[in-house]
Amino acid sequence: MIIHPYVHHPFLYMDSASTTPVCHAAVESMMQYLDTGYGNPNSVHAFGKEAKAAVEVARHEVADLIGAEPEHIVFGPSATGINRFLCGWFGGAVIASNMEHSSVRTVVEKLHLFGAEIMPPKASPEEAPVTKEDVDRFLGPGDGYDMVSVMMINNETGVVNDVKGIAEACHTRKTLFHTDATAAAGAVPIDVKDLDCDFMTIASHKMYGPKGIAALYVKSETAIEDFKKKTYTGTPNVPAIVGFGTACEQAAARLEAQRRILGVATDNDYERLAASFLKALETELGEGSFALNAPKADGKHFKKILNVRFPGVDAESLVLLCSEKGLMISAGAACESNEQKPSQTLLAMGLTPEEARSSVRVSFSRWTTSGEAWESAAILAECVRTLKGIGSAV
What we know:
The protein has helices at residues 24-34, 46-66, 79-90, 102-110, 132-139, 163-172, 192-195, 221-231, 238-262, 270-285, 315-324, 344-348, 353-357, 370-393; strands spanning 2-3, 10-13, 73-76, 94-96, 117-118, 147-149, 176-180, 199-203, 214-218, 291-292, 305-309, 327-328, 359-363. It is α/β, with parallel strands linked by helices.
């Protein structure tokens, strides 16, 4: 339960897939560079060198979180901007899954006339994860594409894709592989060398760091300097970069502590939270009154993110009513939730437009408790009953 300084009552924040709170350690680390350490890292004097050193420390902290070397990390102002730049860089020689973030999908769609391709939709949520076999079938025997982009964990549904297998399928054809790991970084262990990806995008604000800063991992040593020049020209946002680095350091420590003490290699026990939440929904609404838009197979769904469908209920109305009751959830990706159209991700998973419009996303944080998950489900159920009552009366 959170008390917000501008909202004079407690509320339950279950929208961490949109953005997370900034952890106190990140805030504290940023303060020096918002106050006395205001030097420009591009300057050659002592103040500039101090700021540049802080940026390099942060680069090491980001790299350590994902098992990379620091010189392979490029900072940029947002994951969206990095993804758009990366896909545009390769032009028409790119393919992407149809469940990618809009920053990837829309660029590939615009480049369709030049040969870029979106992979075909799935038949159902059960088949949603993108596999090595999917990419093998789509690429065929040739090597006509320069890059494939498939996200590690879907930001709307929590679907887990086989990125290691996909990387293998790509490299067999001498095709580069990019994965958007913004929903995964800091929440699960990542090793870019084990995954063998050529590019990886991560974002600070999805892992308890400040907004407005992200990073791209670039495997190729020859491409790094070129990407540095084009993704972050001008003066780097030193406070944000420092906060990002601290958030990565905190995340790495928490993942290791969870693994060592609890044997759970995530930043919270999301299986337990999801079980509490779904059990509460079933208790409040009855069996069969809702559906989870996700595969049931083990390892195919990261349960930090639950995409839940309530037949006959408008998702946007449900989100607004829940907000009035103090529960913060969303109707999909924050980048697209104001577009008044069904989620492209859910349509690509085989849902109808009507089913997509009746689906909401609930996403937990590292601080969410089972009690809060249960209370959130109770509020959500109350709002569903209210809206169904209104609907039946019309």
